Structures
1.
Amino acid sequence: MNDTATPHRIDLAIIGGGAAGALTALHLLRHAKAPLQVQLFEPASTLAEGIAYATPAPQHLLNVPAGRMSALPDQPTDFTDHLRQVDAFPQDDDASLAGRFVPRRHYAAYLRQRLAEAGEGSPVQLQVVPQAVLSLRRHAGAARLELTDGTVVDAGHVVLACGNSVRPIPLAGADALPHHCIAEAWDYDGVRLLAGEQAIGIIGSGLSMVDSVVALFAAGQSGVLHVFSRHALMPLPHAHGAPASYDPQPLLAMPLRTRLRTLRRHAREAAAQGIPWQSVMERIRPLGKALWQTLDDADQRRFLRHGVRHWDVHRHRIAEEVHVQLRDALADGRLQLHRVRLQGVVETESGLRLSALSHGAAVQWDLGALVNATGVETRAEGLRNPLLRQLLAEGIARPGPHGLGLDSQAAGDRLIDADGNADDAIGVLGSLRIGTLWESLAVPELRQQAEDAARHAVRELEAAMP
Ligand SMILES: Cc1cc2nc3c(=O)[nH]c(=O)nc-3n(C[C@H](O)[C@H](O)[C@H](O)COP(=O)(O)OP(=O)(O)OC[C@H]3O[C@@H](n4cnc5c(N)ncnc54)[C@H](O)[C@@H]3O)c2cc1C
């Protein structure tokens, strides 16, 4: 850091320009009445993509129907209005467009379009800075940020929207593999380039695995795809069906076991009326945060140890057409799912050899390449983002409940430091809040968090103006 330079002073820094940072900027542009100086720091070349919406592949679909992806909580048709404006899916009527799982590439373009429009009438001066923030320290009443190029910026308020971190591949020997035989599932081009005649191993069986499978098949993969997982549970499909009509509120007062038993009973009763279990899950969708926060500490731990995988596959579902593709590939053997404990991987003359324990027996697979589809890193100790490591190391942040993400206020979104104090000038949103909120990943949660963070900053900054 250059101590002699006078830091540039701004009102608000948004750190991260994925969907969450872009949503925060959008709400700020809409709500501010005063000429605030705002900088959004994002090293990627294209705004609003982050990890989820950077994929150009038409096979990579949103896993939330278009009708629920509006950036604006008070205007639920805003995303489908955008799709109409750009003439996507002209054959769909309003209802089928709202229910459609559209390619994810449409989403970042939508956010950028809305940002540009909101910027036109807003007094806010928003500047996108193509730099990562390396450190954040409190300094003379401001948050002092150091950027990758050494620039120093002082911000009155900060919103941390650093998003998802990749989980390292849990496999001894993977680090020593040559680069051409291993790819991260979120490196969409890298995965596509692996396609060929050789068998490929995919570590992890969740949504990132689904992305990799559909991308590899679309790129001409003819070798078998082997999916390795400790539990061998794959995401389940969405379903069109009548809504379930039970009252979910009593669930909040129940301990975990009774809750799950009650949910299963609701699913059986719904099935008896021809209503899919997915409708039963949809009923509790708005209660995601409350369902987590009303579990006591022991039940939260029990859920993390025994329930989370089953919860994920029922809760984070995929479009029916994608599920059909996976089911067909499983049926004809092009896709094989293995429940294993991975042991290690070594390079061989023709590719690599993966060893694992399957039902206690040692098994090996000869593969051409591996994909790391283990998903989002939620453990604070596993976060590799230099800024987040610095915040944790210096006690400006502390791990969230159960060591998940960063600790933040349950009501409100302020970052909590190592002494348990909430920092009024630092808000945090998205997957970093998972330990506090549990449901804190998808756009229906992010847009509300982004609006709340923007409103908080506007209120505080405008109140402090002369
Ligand atoms: C593969 C995938 C598919 C998904 N599909 C859907 C879906 O269909 N619908 C849905 O609602 N949700 C979906 N999600 C959930 C998803 O997490 C959110 O919708 C959203 O993309 C999260 O955005 P984010 O900005 O919080 O995180 P990210 O997308 O991870 O973006 C964070 C950004 O912050 C930047 N950054 C990080 N550290 C710094 C730093 N120190 N300085 C500056 N910039 C920094 C990064 O470069 C990145 O661009 C999906 C998630 C994944 C991983």
Note: DSSP finds 14 helices and 16 strands in the chain.
2.
Amino acid sequence: MLKVDSVSKTFFPHTVNERRALVDVDLQLQEGDFVTVIGSNGAGKSTLLNTVAGRIHQDEGVVSLDGVDVSRLKEHQRAAKVGRVFQDPMAGTAPNLSIEENLSLADRRGRPRGLSRGVTRAKRERFAEALKQLELGLEDRLKTKVGLLSGGQRQALSLLMATYSDPRVLLLDEHTAALDPQRAELVTRLTRSVVQDKGLTTLMVTHNMVQALEVGNRLIMMHEGRIILDVGAAKKAQMTSQDLLAEFGKLKGAVVDDKTLLQ
Ligand SMILES: Nc1ncnc2c1ncn2[C@@H]1O[C@H](COP(=O)(O)OP(=O)(O)OP(=O)(O)O)[C@@H](O)[C@H]1O
Ligand SMILES: [Mg+2]
């Protein structure tokens, strides 16, 4: 359903600042796969998500969604199919708009402009219903400006917005990293339930190894622009974060030309 085929991306090529962010990356996700992505700083995790979203265009290779090559489509042309939540709670919502106006934007995503701009009563009820599931009481604050919400509340709302129009792929880039442990826990719980309820195909970047092992049905590890480890559900269920660190130590030392599969 999502296919990343021999994708490479080099920033500032042929200069002293050259950065090979992705090197011949192959990744295939089945419908409903929930894949956690780990790797050190600069490993290429965000670049991988950015090439799927169309924010960055790869130099080589193909990205396809539902069997359609979307490599040439710009980010806004993929927006109906791709939902995203970023690390920064400020990034996913519009602070000067109210909760219901933000949800209205999410509701209209990927649809023609001009249709049903206002927030009707029926819509308001649907928004309230969806907000209830967050268990933050936001359903009673539909007219509140989003800028007044806490980071955790905004991130929960960002998640709801990113998934509201049933994207084909959900991309989460360290979306719990800026939150305190309790809020991070809440957003992780919400993530699991929305992904499960909607059966969303998901890529989730995290630096939290425990979270990477607990969440999802598959784990990949990146290093220097390559996927160096790809672990399926059965193996993942048995691994500890110590095992992951040990694997990382083993793998990153070697020159890894091929994906190492441990499924
Ligand atoms: N827009 C950009 N312009 C130039 N270089 C970039 C850009 N985005 C990423 N890079 C470089 O590409 C490499 C991979 O970066 P990327 O952001 O994908 O890493 P990451 O795995 O997400 O790291 P982190 O864990 O720190 O978020 C790094 O060397 C980075 O400096
Ligand atoms: Mg990153």
Note: The pocket of adenosine-5'-triphosphate (ligand 1) is lined by residues 11, 19, 21, 39, 41-47 (CB under 6 Å).
